[in-house]
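Bug #77: duplicate submission created two jobs. Keeping one. Sequence:
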Amino acid sequence: MAFTLRAVKVPPNSASLEEARHRVFDFFKQACRSIPNVMEIYNLDDVVSPSQLRSTIAKEIRKNQNITNPKVIDMLLFKGMEELNNIVEHAKQRHHVIGQYVIGQEGLVHELGSKDEGSSEFLKKFYTSNYF
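Kept job's structure:
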């Protein structure tokens, strides 16, 4: 199955902040349109839903919402396009995609609390010690 990604052209410099902002919205739309194909390529249906992936993409974009320099925005947009192309062209393996976009930076922290509920006092101290 060949999937062609419509390239969002990113010029070296945006003329204004509004133009760079418009390109970011175009990139977000293109990334959201590629989600069904990414779900199929990497067989992610059992791990994550398309809406969760869409939220993760939005969160990654919002991390840089305070940047006002159009050149920096263009550079970040180029990096995002490169990442999207790598994912769509299957240059990454399934565990890379799951590790970066499903589990994320916080890891499996939400599951850690449920594992400690039935543990003994010894195990709770062991998990919180410096040796673990």
